[in-house]
Every structure is written in C-alpha cells, then in structure tokens.
Amino acid sequence: MRTPLCDRLGIDLPIIGFTPSEHVAAALSRAGGLGVLGCVRFNDAAELDRVLTWMDENTGGKPYGVDIVMPAKIPAEGTQVDLSKHIPDGHRAFVDRVLKELSVPPLPDDTDERAGVLGWLHSVARSHVEVALNHPIKLIANALGSPPADVIAQCHDRGVPVAALAGKAEHAVRHVENGVDFVVAQGYEAGGHTGEIASMVLVPEIVDAVDVPVLAAGGIGSGRQMAAALALGASGVWMGSMWLATEEYLQTMGESVAMQQALVAATSADTVRTRIYTGKPARLLKTRWTEAWAAADAPEPLPMPLQNLLVSHAHNRIHAANDPSVVSMPVGQIVGRMNAVRPVAEVVADLVSGYEEALSRLDKTR
Amino acid sequence: MRTPLCDRLGIDLPIIGFTPSEHVAAALSRAGGLGVLGCVRFNDAAELDRVLTWMDENTGGKPYGVDIVMPAKIPAEGTQVDLSKHIPDGHRAFVDRVLKELSVPPLPDDTDERAGVLGWLHSVARSHVEVALNHPIKLIANALGSPPADVIAQCHDRGVPVAALAGKAEHAVRHVENGVDFVVAQGYEAGGHTGEIASMVLVPEIVDAVDVPVLAAGGIGSGRQMAAALALGASGVWMGSMWLATEEYLQTMGESVAMQQALVAATSADTVRTRIYTGKPARLLKTRWTEAWAAADAPEPLPMPLQNLLVSHAHNRIHAANDPSVVSMPVGQIVGRMNAVRPVAEVVADLVSGYEEALSRLDKTR
Q: Which residue of B lies nearest to A201 if distances are taken between CA atoms?
C-alpha cells in the first residue's frame, strides 16, 4: 500500500491522521502513517510548544505534521472578553435552559475552566505556525481555506509542504493557485467542517481539477474504503473520526469515556451537519444536545468565532457531566464503523489488511 | 469487469441502468449491461405493455428489467380527481404565482396534457407487475421499500428476482427478510429518492449487513467510481442520472433539450435534496424552480402522492417552456461529470476503460 505520496512525506503508508491528541498522532506516525496534530485547542502557544517537544521525543524519529485553522474569511479579532459582548442574551438564556433540561450540572466551583477556542483567530493560528516551524514537522495543514500567502511562503522557506481542505473543486483550484502543495478533499460524510458534495463525487472531481496529490477525507475507516479512495484517484487518505475511539485518545483526553461510549454505540445515521459547534457547517454526533438546537424554539447559531464562545462553557459542563446522551463532538458518518475502543496500531493494521483484501477481490473481476 | 452477478443475470457487465426511457434501457442491454425501465410514468398499464413489447423487439435477446414504485407505507388510493381535493388552495396559489414569476407560459389550449404520476399507488404498481411478468424480464426493482410479500412471491413464481433500494442498513436487512434477492444501496449523493448516508459509508455497511448481492447507487458515473464501488464490496453498480444526458434519452423524451442543456451545464454543487417532487426527500437539479420552493415564503411540500399531483401541471408547463433555468428533474451529484450528450454505448465504453485504468493504478500501490 504505497503511493508516490509516501516517498514525498517519508512515510510507509499513505494514511494521514488528523487528531487533537498528541498520543494518537505519535502512535500513528510510529505505525507508518503521518500523525497530524490539531492545534486549534491551544489558545496558548507555549503549551503547543511543550506538546510538540513531547512529539519530538515520542515519534521515534518518524515524520509528523500539524493542523491549524485559519478561516479564509478573517473572523473578528479580539480577546474572549471583547468578543463575548457580541453574544445576544437570548442565545445565552437558550443555552442555560437546554443544559438545565438535559440535567447537565454546573461545574464545581474549583474547576480550572478551559477557555473557548480562539485558535481560529489569525493571530492565534499564526503563533501556532511560528511554534510549529521550530519543530521538525513535515506538513502543515489548514482546515478552512488556503493559509495567507506569507504563511505559505514561511512554510516553504522551511521546506514544509502545506495542505488545505476543500469541499468543492473550485476551492481546490484556488488553494493550488495560492501555492498549496496537497489538497484534502473533504466529502459531505466527513466529521467537522464539511460541504455538501459526497466523497464518491468530490474526490475524482478534485483529482481532475488540480495537479497536486489529493488526500480523500470523509467516510474512510476501513481498508475497503481506502481502496475506494485510491481507486477514485486519491494519493492517500486523511482520517479524523476513527482516532476518537482509540486507547491513545484517552491518554490525552482522560475524561472522554462517555464520549467514546456514545461513539461506539452510534450508527452511521447518528450524525448531523449543523452550525452549532463553530458557526460554520460541521458534522457532529447526533445527541440530545444537537437535537435541542434543531428544535423549533432554538435560535440560529451565531457566526464564527462567536458561536463557539457561546457554547464553550456549555461544552465544559457537558464534558464534565460524562453523559453519553449529551455529548458535543464532531465525527463523520464513519462513526457507524467505530464499534470498539482499540489501539491506533490495530486500526492501522486493519486498514492495511482490508486494503489488500479489497485489491484481491478486484483482481477477480478481470 | 465481471462479477458473479453477471452470471446470475446473464449480462456481460455489472452495470444496471435505471431509466424511464425504453431507448436508453434497450441500448444499455445491447451494450452488455442491464437496462431497467422505470414504470412509474405509465398511468395506463396498456401503454407499458406496448413499450415492453418494443423492448422485446429491440434488445437483441439481451436481458432487461423493470422498476416499479411501491412505497412501503401505502399511500391513499384514489383517482387524480379524488385525491386533488386534499390539496390546499394556498399550495395551488403558490405554484401559480411561482410559474408566473419564472415566466413559464400556460400550455396551449389544444395540449393533450399528461396526468400526474399515479404509478406509486399500489393499485397502479400492481398493474405494472402483472404486465411486466408477461414479458421476458430478468429483474423487478422497487424504488421505495420492499414490495408486498405476495408481489415478491408472484415474481419468484415466474423466476424473476426482485431488487429493492435501501438508504440504511436496517432497511436492507428488512428487504432480505422479506425475500428480496438484491439490494441497491442508494447513497446520499444519488438522484431521486435518497437518504442521508453517503455511498462511501453506506455501501460497505449494507454489504456487511446482508448476504445477497449489493448494487452501489449514488455518485457512479466513471470507471474510477465503479472501481471504488466494487472495492467497497458491491457486486455491481446501479446508475440512473448518467443516462439522462444520452442521445437515446432524447429519442423517448423528444422535448427534453432544455433539460439536457441544464444538466450538461450543471456542477456537482447544483443539486438539492427536497420533498417538492414527490413529497419524499429526493435529489433534484437546483434551478429557479427548486429555489422558489426553498424561499422563506414557500409552503411545506405535501405528503406523497399529493405533492406530485400538485406540481404535475406545473411540470408539464415547465417542460413545454423549454427553459434550462426552470427545469424540474431528479439527478444526482454526478451531474457535475455529465458534460456532453453522448450515446449510451459510449458511456458504457468509458466506464469499462476507466475501470481498467483504475485497477492498473491500484496495482502499482502493491
């Protein structure tokens, strides 16, 4: 299971794994893929620096990458306190009422509360790039559009290729015009921010539209799906959801037991594409929390970055509540195939053996 | 490009093509696939009988099938006149206003107007089955759920296997329990009635859930996509949209020039999943007609079969208007790959050569 992408990135398997967990990222890199650490959760660049130092010490010299979030349309800058002034009282009241109805308790008084995500402010994302380029990263990916030209130049000066996600062929073309080196074709079925065109249609469309390697994202969780992605013309796969149900994920996010229970129990029909997480359409696990926002009396979600600031305290309470029915978590339709919490290496081994089986099956059609 | 399905159906290529056009169906059967004629447009069973006699004379002895529409939930029975009483005046007024705004002229007085589709009433669909079983058909497919047990038995008594469409694994399991012989896994990206789970996730899920051959539907329009479908475990593909942009389609539906122009111009982003065509969610080409129904002042679509009765006269006017911007046509996201009107045999030849190329590319990953 080798493609030219493997040589380009110095990896054994064309499996690129996006994850907020350094334990998952390191395990995937050690298993032969490329672990890509999501930086958006690091409001403090110094914390990211410490985690990347840990990565340097725990990837056994194997390549890894990072993922930043710089929306193509620059969101309002500001501290959490400044920005919070723009959140309507009605929205706050709705969140409070829903949490009460869902029996999500308040946080204990002594909780050191995690702040809302600011990582998609350009100022914060730029600090992530600065820090990451001081580590031996092999890829920087951007989740929402092309990074600014000077950021791409900065990465190229350091010999680091840049990837960008695209949900339409025209976006992919623009990325490549802007200097992006790889395109991640993110299909409708993917978790997190996603468009409306499904992988089966989107991947070959983007492959035909650009002359750079394309990674298929959305719906990839087995070797059969990986074979399908490569049949469609992808040079590799970009996977995010599958790593949420791994043992390594718990090592980073120790308190995510209820979330993993919810993911393992869910079917492929148990996701919803909604703006309630960030203000932009993103696919989440369907739970009583997302259903409350789909009710007739729910307000329209706010634009990015206000919506996440609105719900960040609720997310902390939901997380602490540890109730599988009230999880708030981005995940793709592949969640239906996530039926156990496994080590990363086992997920990778299954991808490889399933891929070989699929190719053997195709051989018989000749 | 052979699978065990080919032997089972007596065909050379595992390409099953759904189409309302007997010219397309016959051309596909002659090209080595299985043409499946959609019966829902035949309110009069005698007309279907005449068309199937034409098929018998024009398929060169090659196998073909038919597709009926029997919703699992039985809709209200009645003639068009009876049923029309249930359509609210406000809905009629909305349709009239939109047609005026879109400059769709009234029909000439002497038009022999086509009635609304009644083919999904069980009484009418049963008449289709009766007629079809007197022809040498090799497959009966049902578009909305399993056919009733006695209809399945009737087909099996005549040695005709039955296929049913499914948008969820649980529906596929139920179909097989009911005696269905093949499942068509219809992904989100497909045209017409469709669910929310994309083909990349749905196809392997259904393959794992049932022990009968599965046909992949949704997003298939090239050999690469066909290879992807077979990599996912499908025994063949079920294609509908691609045949709309063929020369043979025009032979049946001579006045569809504007529709074909609109399809050829559309991108994969130019579809919408909506209830305005039949009352159930179906993917259509996005045009000024669908946009009018998406506007804030549009009424909720009516349940099946009322919604199609409501819009059937509008469909006739839209069709006669011959304006590519006001088409009402079910089509999948694959419409982005439909960039020319071609003969059916050319579409099939491209599928075969693209499939071989995809397999050669996969070989190099070993």
A: B219
Write the pLDDT tens digit of every residue in B174-197.
999 999 999 999 999 999 999 999
Q: Are the CB atoms for A176 and A156 separated by under 8 Å?
A: no
**Nearest residue, CB atoms, B269 vs list A3, A168, A337:** A168
CA distance B40 to B43: 7
Return the pLDDT at B112. Answer: 66
Residue in B188, B196, B201 to test binding to A, most A beta-carbons within 10 Å: B201
Cα(A215)–Cα(A213) distance, integer angstroms: 7
A141, A325, A163, A336: which is closest to A242 by C-alpha? Answer: A336
Confirm if A200 and A188 have CB atoms less than 8 A apart.
no
Stretches in chain B below the pLDDT threshold 70? 72-81, 110-120
pTM of the prediction?
0.95
How many other CB atoms are found less than 10 A from the CB of residue A78? 16
Buried b (16+ CB within 10 A) or exposed e, A313-333: bbbbbbbbbebbebbbbbbbb
Range picked from A79-83, A124-128, A330-334 for highest mean pLDDT = A330-334
Distance of alpha carbon B297 from alpha carbon A73, whole angstroms: 30
Residue type, B301: P
Task: Report which DSSP code applies to A278.
Answer: T
**Which segments of chain B are extended strands (E)?**
15-19, 34-38, 64-68, 140-142, 162-166, 182-186, 192-193, 214-217, 236-239, 271-274, 282-285
CA A197, chain centre distance (Å): 18
Shortest CA distance from A270: residue in chain B: B197
Are β-strands B15-19 and A282-285 bridged in parallel, bridged antiparallel, or unpaired?
A: unpaired
Residues with Cβ within 8 Å of residue B295, at least 6 apart in sequence: none
